[in-house]
TrEMBL record:
<feature type="domain" description="N-acetyltransferase">
    <location>
        <begin position="5"/>
        <end position="173"/>
    </location>
</feature>
<keyword id="KW-0012">Acyltransferase</keyword>
<dbReference type="InterPro" id="IPR050832">
    <property type="entry name" value="Bact_Acetyltransf"/>
</dbReference>
<protein>
    <submittedName>
        <fullName>GNAT family N-acetyltransferase</fullName>
    </submittedName>
</protein>
<dbReference type="Pfam" id="PF00583">
    <property type="entry name" value="Acetyltransf_1"/>
</dbReference>
<dbReference type="InterPro" id="IPR016181">
    <property type="entry name" value="Acyl_CoA_acyltransferase"/>
</dbReference>
<dbReference type="GO" id="GO:0016747">
    <property type="term" value="F:acyltransferase activity, transferring groups other than amino-acyl groups"/>
</dbReference>
<dbReference type="InterPro" id="IPR000182">
    <property type="entry name" value="GNAT_dom"/>
</dbReference>
<keyword id="KW-0808">Transferase</keyword>
Amino acid sequence: MPSEFSIRAATAEDAPTLAALNLACWRETYEGLLPAETFAALTLEERLDHWRGAFQSSGSRVALAFDVDGAAVGFTHWRAHEFVLGGRLGRGGEICAVYLRRAVQRRGLGRRMMRQMAREMRASGCKWASLVVLRDNLPARRFYEALGGRRFGRELSWRGVPQIAYGWRDVAGLAAHQ
Ligand SMILES: CC(C)(COP(=O)(O)OP(=O)(O)OC[C@H]1O[C@@H](n2cnc3c(N)ncnc32)[C@H](O)[C@@H]1OP(=O)(O)O)[C@@H](O)C(=O)NCCC(=O)NCCS
């Protein structure tokens, strides 16, 4: 059965679309989770700067999802992270963002976009994947746990808001997740 959503790689030309979509998703997600002044300070200009910068720095992989009418309804962003451990070079995928408009949530699109990111990570030689999520964003945490993500590390803080990390030791498992 054909999917009701299409997904494609985003390019620098998509920065205005991403900025507007990003802001709309943040407003739907973070009201009540972020301090009121932080929430009120979210702007389109800042998001536009962010996305223009993301496409200028090498290694950002961004995808956009569209509904049947061509409206942008979701996006993902990841980049490779390299480090040396015990004299060996390790490479993992850092998931920077996965956001869908509320109207299209719980229809399997998030799972599909995570799977696609994991496949890209595998193809680029990443062994593991990780991300940071607000501790109190419980729906997102349940989603990552349903996809096999495991909490690791200590609690972090972003502008006083608690954050925690989730990871997948073997990105191949996420790439194959049904
Ligand atoms: C989190 C998000 C990406 C999940 O995508 P989605 O398309 O809604 O989720 P899926 O339909 O693919 O769900 C896959 C599984 O995850 C779990 N899950 C997803 N959303 C859940 C929720 N709100 N509560 C509990 N479990 C949930 C379920 O096990 C689900 O399987 P099921 O529907 O068969 O029960 C999406 O809901 C979203 O964009 N939320 C707002 C933004 C956000 O919080 N992003 C993360 C920031 S770190």
